[in-house]
Amino acid sequence: MSSESAHTVTLPQPQSLERSNDPASATHTEGEATLDESSGTLAHVPLPAYLQQTYWWAYLHPASVRIFERQWLVNLILWGNFAKLRDAALKELEPFSHGDILQVACVYGDFTERLTQCLGPTGRLDVVDVAPVQLENLKAKLDRDASRISLHHQDSTNLRFADASYDCVVVFFLLHEQPENVRIRTIAQALRVVKPGGKVVFVDYHRPDWLNPFRYVMIPILASLEPFAMDLWRREITDWLPDEARNLAIDKQTFFGGLYQKVVITAE
Fold it and tell me: Which DSSP letter does residue 61 get?
């Protein structure tokens, strides 16, 4: 859901919570899971036009959260593969459990809750999203004593964190929701804020094998509901990397007959 800034719509703002955020750094404050603030109010981050026009029904309308925030439904949408894909991403994060982890965009289902359970004693998690309603939903899902978790109202194409701020960045089923120009900027930002030796983990759709029957089921579904998702069938995630990142170590794994992919990029 986190994405390019464009026009604004009126949405209920999350309540002011106990945190003042310095947009130039990734420092943290103890307390329960918090939303970042600026001068006592949430920083103004406009909702992108494409998100309002294409995905209002899934992520922005208040009823969306009530409908889609069901573990069984999220798993059904991914044809029973949610847990497998979630765990594949979390396994990549294990070596960084004592460091700083960034999740780009909120996720329906228990992805973030499971991620927090993997944090070591000194580990921290930041989550960014462009939609306030999604941040409020995630805050409600997290434990009340989530003292090492901070939620940030930010745009994935313009992260307000310093270069090399995070040991690991995870982008779980976001890229397929973004137009190509937005996707390119999101990927560049994820690579910018990861530390040398750290990883950026992408999990998303992928072009399935020719013999995979879901290939023919998914074409009309994606074409009608996820108009940008077919980009990931036509091209590789690595095609959208900035020039300076094209020689980085890249590991790719596909799942469920090629319908899903995990791409891990290790920074230098």
Answer: S
Sheet strand arrangement including 100-104:
34-35, 149-153, 124-129, 100-104, 166-172, 194-205, 260-266, 249-255
Element at 260 (helix H, strand E): strand 260-266
Which pLDDT does position 34 carry in this prediction?
62
Report pTM. Answer: 0.86
CA end-to-end span of the chain: 28
| Secondary structure letter of residue 115 according to DSSP | H
Task: Return the CATH class of domain 46-266.
Answer: alpha beta
Residue 20: per-residue pLDDT: 34
Per domain, the residue ranges of the chain are 46-266
Residues in the chain predicted with pLDDT less than 50, given as ranges, are 1-32, 37-42
The count of other CB atoms within 10 Å of the CB of residue 163 is: 9
Residue of 34, 8, 3 lying closest to 21 (CA atoms): 34
